[in-house]
Amino acid sequence: MPTYTKVPLSVAISGQQIAVTGTTLAQSMTIHTPAASAYDEVWLYATNIGSTNVELVLTWAHTGTSAQMFATIPYKAGRSLIIDGKLLSGTANSVKAYAASSNAINIDGFVNRIT
Fold first, then answer.
1. Radius of gyration of the chain (CA)
2. Mean pLDDT over residues 83-106, rounded?
3. Could you tell me which CATH class the domain 4-114 is placed in?
4. H/E run at residue 32
């Protein structure tokens, strides 16, 4: 029977928010890398701290356009769910993010690690 363990995102210090600084695919920053021998059920939330709506792009496990997911994060809308338990496995696969404006989007979340 599988075991579920709730853990923070791999790059979040003590579960803190991650500021998205990159504005292009080449500048995308890692949000989470899964453990080698587990499936991670990833939950992500975004907050727009800028002054206008901002487009956020997540890349899932690859850098090609087929792995990109787009979300417009409204200004002053509070914390918005952007990934709802999508599975990820293997340390070569990670979730990365970039946005149309640097330092306008903060991401936080958690992982349910399935072993």
1. 14
2. 93
3. mainly beta
4. strand 29-32
